[in-house]
Specification:
Pdz3 Domain; membrane; alpha+beta; elongated; 6 strands; 2 domains; 144 residues; disordered N terminus; six-stranded antiparallel beta sheet
Length: 144
Amino acid sequence: MNGSVHASPAVVDIQLKRGPAGLGFNIVGGVDQQYVVNDSGIYVSKIKEDGAAALDGRLQEGDKILAINGMKLEDRTHRAVVDLFRTAGEDVQLQVQKKLPGHMNGPTGAQPEQSSLSFLGILAAVGGAALLVSVIYMRHIRKH
């Protein structure tokens, strides 16, 4: 670390009016399904096109939902939070912690690790193929 201090994410209140398709977003997380390592919070995983959240424009994928209609979401299971959303009424007040710009909420390191492993696998396969072609070529040369 270089000693720089990261600004804490902004906490905002967002009022949504439930539409025909609900509030128009999906969530992940909870004490039983941690989405972020060492954080049992509830996160927005998808904003549905033309849903209430998309039309409002303030809620974004990766935002952390802290409360629904004043009810804190700490230490709740995923199912309990889904039930809170279902029974929240037509006008829903969300307290949301905005994600930091350039910060991805979710399991850390999963994608880059997978990419580097894939690259090493391809490199090993190409090297193996080159070795095999060399061995076949050398055997062919010895026979003639």
